[in-house]
Amino acid sequence: DMPYSQIATAQGLKELASYIDGIGPSKDMVIPRNMLGKLKAPTSLVTDAHAAGLKVHPWTFRRENVFLPLDFKSGVNPAKHGDLAGEIYAFKAAGIDGLFTDNTPEAAAALNRPQP
Prior knowledge:
Blueprint (H helix, E strand, L loop, with lengths): L3 H4 L2 H7 L5 E2 L3 H4 L14 H7 L3 E2 L27 H10 L10 H9 L4
Parallel strand pairs: 1-2
């Protein structure tokens, strides 16, 4: 048994790779947010996971402002739809292999078209 903080390290991921094919981390473990809710630089999690031979599918991508980073919100109404595709493009650029979403048509469209 390894603590979660050690599992997410390069060594921990190598150990996981002996019996799993991929990980499903929280989005914040891939690209954290600053105190204002804007995306920061990606962590090394995707790179470390890929080096260990693991796929990375973070969760959960949703279009409502309340779930989006400040960078992709559309106004202050938490229920209004923001720029889900923009958020997905940021995570694609970080190297994710797939994702979990509640908005499949929008997410599939963003994943299957080139970034602007």
